[in-house]
Write a structure and sequence with these properties.
The protein has 20 helices and 30 strands. By secondary structure, the chain is an alpha/beta fold. The protein has 4 domains: 197 residues, 3-Layer(bba) Sandwich (FAD/NAD(P)-binding domain); 179 residues, D-Amino Acid Oxidase, Chain A, domain 2, CATH 3.30.9; 211 residues, Rossmann fold; 35 residues. Strands 1, 2, 9, 10, 11, 12, 18 and 19 form an 8-stranded mixed sheet that branches. The protein has an 8-stranded mixed sheet with strand order 6-7-5-14-15-16-13-17. A 7-stranded mixed sheet has the order 24-23-22-25-26-28-27, with helices on both faces. α15 links the parallel β25 and β26. α1 crosses α9 and α13 packs parallel to α20. It is an enzyme of class 1 (oxidoreductase). It catalyses: sarcosine + O2 + H2O = formaldehyde + glycine + H2O2.
Length: 730
């Protein structure tokens, strides 16, 4: 059955679809809105009574849109005599690093938004619902509050319906296509699951988490999005401290990001939630629960920062979904024209509004207006360069590479990823698919880093504002995880192995290198982290804000091995001195907290090279999406990957109050000086030289008397290959 042609057909009646219907109907257009569930349902991303409205972003693009949306929300409120936003002010805070908030301050200054910089004591006194730790930093501004999304949708739908817009509930859409028949104007053809065909001069797709699936069913692979499940946790609290008058909305910066809103209903409590969650198929959303570790982390966070909140367990949990793009930028664009399209103009009938990545609700009015402008006029007065499909990087859940989203959290199951990789290694077709996926990821990274990214990001202790040098990165997977999220233009990745050895030792290493270089990162092989001065490419290089060495280890567990690893650390620290930024430079070393590693006495080794400990923080390997820790000897330890359990980052800065001597020179000069002194005093005694210890490599049947040669052999591709073959044989 074919129905009449509408001016605009909108797929999805959430916040964005309702806003598009509102603005299209106000222009007198004939509008049809198709919703697969009932109106105002709670199965997607737009339901509930509270979302943060704020204007404070660390970039101009979203701050400008939010300020425009505030005026538009106020106009809707006035027109309909309804309160959609309850103003509360906003507190943005970071647990330790004031630098995380610098972008906010700069943006608010440019847009003349008043703000205050507060320390923890000032926050806790002014807003007694908080109990921030003493080292916290905060920025407060008054232009923020709580948006009621369900009431906003109902208001816009009521206005649109009153102006003639038609809303059809329980009307799931099967496909959306452009059509151009001879002698007729191009139209969008929307086919419903029941076979009904609807035609519109334009179609706007605002299907939220179902957008990716719908467009794939329609034959388009240009837009790939990753829905994630999120959990809105409400907590019992001392109610008088958490009302909108006493408690502002807040965002905690740094991974994991946390946000909160005041108590809007006494029976629910104060809302405090993590801004992340696991990947999810939107049709299988029911039954997906928050991971136990993430629940426990949030409970600990609540206990530390909100002393008047019962952190034992949430009082109530709402389920929601975000639809993520890799860089968290929205998609507001025409569906790209397929290369084999019979009529390119037909595809221009379809406008996509998607990928709002957990921060689009506040900008609903301006997004609705942009989508309507594109559909009706073909252009808009708003700047949409960053929202084009070719500018926004998206990730689908069907690739064999790790799914990545804006929180840089590995939302997919880590064990599943490892199993996928093992399966791919044993299946040539799967391996070929994996290679294509990695190359596709590299191209996506290049698109991201080549375009202007308006979202400054932090990943653990790292930021895209830092110039970062990674040393000793076994298979380059850690560096690639940084490049995927932070971009590659400020990243230099190195490893100790030669390119040939790397290829033999780690199957995916060269693919990771290709992806890094495509992302704009520098990649170098044969780099000795204890002697960086010999690297010509470092001559005249810009200083680094972060130099990273993850899990340094020369192998072995004897007292001699401990001494060798202590020496490795001392020499590494000293080697970094001249390449660090003079005021903002830091050296990061990750180590596990075990008796063996504690014997290395990392703080003593750092002090010997003129460094002091700034802080430590937990090394959470799961946030570095796709990172697979590697052993120095891949064939050892039954092929198992090394554990990162109990690992921490030790973060050091230069101690300019002390003078140090190059420990690498001390190692060679001190014995000579001691002998000379002994001869002068006539106390030198001839002693029989101790026979050098023999070191044997059992798999290769080779014996060494020189430690350097032994370690070099144990790190070689030849040894790895022999050990692997021997393991298979047994």
């Amino acid at each position: 059955m074919v129905t009449a042609v509408y001016d605009v057909v909108i797929v999805g009646a959430g916040l964005m679809g309702s806003a598009a219907a509102y603005y299209a109907a106000k222009q007198g257009k004939r509008v049809l809105v198709l919703e697969q569930f009932e109106l105002l349902h709670g199965k997607g991303s737009s339901h509930g009574s509270s979302r943060i409205f704020c204007v404070a972003y660390p970039n101009d693009v979203y701050t400008e849109l939010s300020l425009q949306s505030l005026k538009m929300w106020q106009a809707i409120e006035k027109e309909n005599d309804v309160e959609l936003i309850r103003m509360t002010g906003e507190l943005d805070f970071a647990p330790t690093r004031k630098d995380d908030l610098r972008g906010l301050e700069e943006t608010l200054t440019r847009f003349n938004v008043p703000f205050e910089v507060l320390n923890a004591a000032q926050v806790n006194e002014r807003f007694p619902g908080f109990s921030l730790p003493a080292n916290s930093h905060a920025v407060y501004n008054p232009l923020a509050g709580v948006l009621n999304p369900t009431l906003a949708m109902a208001t816009m739908q009521k206005v649109a319906n009153g102006l003639g817009a038609e809303f059809r509930e329980h009307s799931p859409v099967k496909s959306v296509e452009g059509e151009h028949q001879t002698g007729e104007a191009p139209v969008a053809v929307v086919t419903l699951a029941n076979g009904t065909v609807v035609r519109g001069r334009q179609c706007i797709v605002t299907a939220g988490p179902w957008t990716d699936k719908l467009l794939k069913l329609s034959g388009s692979d240009n837009v790939k999005l990753q829905p994630i499940a999120t959990f809105g946790a409400y907590w019992r609290c001392k109610q008088e401290l958490y009302t909108p008058e006493k408690f502002p909305v807040f965002i905690k910066y740094g991974y994991p990001e946390v946000y909160g809103l005041p108590m809007m209903n006494a029976h629910e409590g104060v809302k405090i939630c993590r801004h992340d969650g696991p990947d999810v198929n939107p049709d299988e959303r029911q039954g997906v629960a928050q991971r136990e570790a993430e629940q426990e982390w949030l409970q600990a966070f609540v206990a530390e920062n909100f002393s008047h909140v019962d952190s034992s367990a949430p009082n109530h949990v709402d389920h929601c979904m975000y639809t993520m793009t890799l860089d968290s930028n929205f998609i507001l664009d025409f569906l790209p024209v397929p290369a084999n399209a019979a009529s390119p103009t037909a595809t221009k009938r379809i406008v996509v509004g998607a990928g709002f990545s957990g921060h689009g609700a506040k900008m609903t009015p301006v997004i609705g207006q942009i989508l309507t402008d594109l559909a009706i006029k073909g252009t808009t007065n708003h700047s949409t360069e960053v929202f084009r499909i070719t500018s926004t990087i998206c990730v689908g859940w069907s690739t064999t590479t790790t799914s990545t989203n804006t929180m840089a959290k590995s939302h997919g199951d880590k064990k599943r990823r490892r199993n996928d990789k093992k399966h791919a290694a044993n299946n040539s077709n799967a391996a070929a698919q994996q290679i294509r996926a990695v190359k596709s990821q590299a191209n996506a990274i290049f698109s991201l880093t080549a375009s202007s990214n308006p979202n400054p990001k932090n990943l653990g202790p790292f930021s895209d504002r830092q110039r970062i040098l990674v040393v000793g990165d076994g298979d380059f997977s850690f560096s690639l995880s940084l490049a995927v999220f932070l971009g590659g233009k400020n990243l230099v990745a190195t490893c100790y192995d030669s390119k040939l050895d790397l290829k033999e030792k780690y199957s995916n290493a060269l693919l990771n290198c290709d992806a890094l270089e495509t992302a704009g990162a520098e990649v170098h092989f044969d780099v000795d982290a204890t002697n960086l001065e010999k690297e010509n490419w470092l001559n005249g290089a810009q200083p680094f804000q972060s130099i990273v060495f993850n899990f340094p280890h020369l192998g072995g567990a004897t007292e001699a091995d401990v001494a060798n690893n202590q020496k490795l650390l001392r020499n590494f620290f000293y080697s970094t001195r001249q390449y660090l930024h003079p005021t903002r430079g830091q050296v990061l070393v990750s180590l596990r907290n075990t008796l063996f590693y504690n014997r290395w006495k990392i703080q003593e080794q750092a002090a010997a090279s003129g460094f002091k400990l700034k802080r430590t923080e937990v090394f959470d390997a799961s946030i570095y999406s796709g990172y697979e820790p590697q052993r120095t000897h891949p064939a050892s330890f039954r092929g198992e990957p090394p554990s990162t359990t109990g690992a921490h980052y030790f973060i050091f800065t230069l101690d300019k109050s002390i003078e140090v001597v190059d420990p690498r020179q001390q190692a060679t000069q001190e014995p000579k000086a001691a002998r000379s002194s002994a001869v002068k005093k006539g106390t030198a005694k001839k002693k029989a030289a101790a026979p050098p210890t023999k070191m044997t490599c059992q798999p290769c049947g080779l014996t060494f008397r020189d430690v350097k040669k032994y370690n070099g052999h144990m790190n070689s591709a030849k040894h790895a290959k022999k050990a692997k073959a021997l393991k298979k044989k047994h």
